[in-house]
Amino acid sequence: MSEKITPYKNSALGKKEQVEQMFDTISGNYDNLNRVISFGIDIKWRKKVLKIVSDKKPKIILDIATGTGDLAILMAQTNADKIIGLDISSGMLEVGKKKIAAKNLSQTIEMVLGDSENMPFEDNHFDAITVAFGVRNFENLDKGLSEILRVLKPNGIFVILETSVPDKTPYKQGYGFYTKNILPLIGKIFSKDDAAYGYLSESAANFPYGEKLNNILRKIGFIDVKAMPQTFGVATIYSASKK
Q1: What's the start-to-end Cα distance of the chain, in Å?
Q2: Whole-prediction pTM value?
Q3: pLDDT tens sequence across 145-156
Q4: 169 SS3 class
Q5: Which long-range contacts (CB under 8 A, 24 or more apart) does 208-213 make?
């Protein structure tokens, strides 16, 4: 399971603290590296998330593991009254705040330092909640998803964008080679923290996806759960709701 995979193998810190340290370290290069690693396709995936959320006409949105705010900024196109980006890494949030200010969105988007598994929000608070490439970094997946269910309004929309593994040949073999050999190499060349991108590829390969994650969401209490594979299955968009 993903909670056994950590960024720094010999660290005495727990996964949560290691993830915070890792993202603080790579925050300056994170956006550019993401574009290189995904060949820019992640932008297309995020726009699909935007469409799903926009259709619900939300007034208040929470973007968990917001990082440098890419998805939170995109969510401004929903015309929501308020968007909160939550992340455990202060380094990532500082980069995000500069991007938000440059786009004159500081009145709409608030960046909050916090733990997704213990959020400082009241029950039934958000019309929509999103997580892009963040759920596999949860230290306790069930606890994190339970917190999301708690703060989501009844009939609200929850959307996950996460890496997954292609099932069909030759995409499965190509994906395996890329994530095991190429992705860590790119990270090592461009990042100050070569362990980070080894972790990101390893965690992606071992995280439950497709129907396995659907079943976890149902177990937590989400309804209307569905998975929508993207680009040969290298990523999947999941949507769910609350009774």
Answers
A1: 28
A2: 0.90
A3: 999 999 999 999
A4: coil
A5: 208/1, 208/2, 209/162, 209/163, 209/164, 209/165, 209/236, 210/164, 210/236, 213/160, 213/162, 213/238
